Amino acid sequence: MAQSAMEAIDTCPAKPSGPGNPWLAYAALYRDPLGYLTRAARKHGDIVHLKIGRKSDFLLNHPDLVRAALLDHENLRRCVHRPLRRVLGTGLLTCRGERHKKQRALLQTMFNRERIVALGDVMVDQITRWTDRWRDGDTVDVAEEMTDLAISISGKALFNVDFGSKAAELRNALVTVLQATRFKNLALASKQFEKLSLPSHRRFARAAEKLDAEIRAMIAERRKGACEDPDLLSVMVRLHKQSRKGITDQKIRDQMLTFFMVGNETPATGLMWTWYLLSENPDVATKLHNEVDQVLGDRLPSGQDLDRLRYTRMVFAESMRLYPPVWLMTRRAVRDVKINGFVIRSGSYVHVSPFVTHRDARYFPEPERFDPERWTPEAAAARPKFSYFPFGGGSLQCIGEGFAWMQGVLTIATLARRWRMRLVPGHRIELDPHITLRSRYGMPVILERRK
């Protein structure tokens, strides 16, 4: 089905074109990967042949091609950055085929809607506890604050652990590990380069060891006694006791570390950009505050409010359109694949970019404008499904998508009840693509308490 979908796109050229000199292309991609890919897509169309250095890659931009690339697991396999593979082991993000299918089925029950809604109160409790120390007029870096908050939420909701003062320490370790996925670092990386004893490599190793030790300590503690709430860690430990051959201690560690790293970074990044966009668009912020006041009054939100906080959800959706946390998804062809008559050879890399496609004027008029009204049910239904894919698609779609939506909407609503955030005047915003789309110089905001 996926291959036939590829062949059906008649808007794409039979032989994809692309930028010329491969070494100049490499230099341009290194300097500005987001700008380079966006310009290439706008100039060369829905299939772009990226001749970069010695490599031959392809960028797919049409929603039907994006769908095909994300759903064709037989011919195209997900790629995970080598530094992350070393840290994460064989968790849900890094495993493939039948192993991935079995792991996902095992974990899926923990992420059904009923379970996620039930976690709403846990999330809100962590949000209010974390932000009770905020004061009117304070300047905080919401890049750091949202990461610390995400760590606190996932700790309690997924592992029933209160990280407390450890959150900042764990955030520093997480950021250090993710620094290895910074695009400019990956562009220079090789197996030989990674073997060098460099300060950055030693920092990476220490941070990875810190995260590993924390997860293993959680597993050991859980073995000492049962947890009243059936959280993710309890489920994994129980299954380990029932079938030692199937789920080893190492596999529990790999799974928990995967959820800790990816499950924190994605919503934290999305929320950071949301506060930036609300600061820059006060009319949208006013409408958001009006909805929060109307729906909640003087009370805190809960998971039951998710469907009532419609504009809040639209704000988060539009934020992830402009600044998708995961900005690039890569597949490797394991056999020759035909796309609209053009053969992509085995070993080539195929990329789809939410950042590029989400800013395509064919699907989002005035694509640079922040407009949550794009996400009314009628407007969203009128667009092709894979014109918007912040969480991927198919059987590899993020298993925690529902959790991330709940966390995003409840965090925005809880904080918007009490606070406005204004970007520090003159602060420089520069996109810094890692595995997620970060802000190179953080995101300092001035807190203004709402009257």
Q: Using the CA coordinates, give the radius of gyration.
A: 22 Å
Number of strands: 12
**CATH arch. level architecture:** Orthogonal Bundle
Query: What sort of overall outline do the alpha carbons produce when their principal axes are compared?
Result: globular
Physical arrangement of strands within the biggest beta sheet: 1-2-8-5-3
CATH class: Mainly Alpha
Provide tags for this entry.
disordered N terminus; Cytochrome p450; alpha+beta; 451 residues; 12 strands; 11% strand
Describe the fold and architecture.
The chain is an alpha+beta fold. It has one domain: Orthogonal Bundle (Cytochrome p450). Helix content is 53%, strand content 11%. It contains 20 helices and twelve strands. The protein has helices at 2-7, 22-31, 33-44, 63-71, 82-88, 97-108, 113-118, 120-131, 142-159, 166-179, 183-188, 191-194, 199-224, 232-242, 249-280, 282-296, 310-322, 354-357, 377-381, 401-418; strands at 47-52, 55-60, 76-78, 139-141, 329-333, 337-339, 342-344, 349-352, 419-423, 431-433, 437-439, 444-449. The strands form four sheets. It has a five-stranded mixed beta sheet with strand order 1-2-8-5-3. A three-stranded antiparallel beta sheet has the order 4-12-9. Strands 6-7 form a two-stranded antiparallel sheet. The model is unreliable at 1-14 (pLDDT under 50).
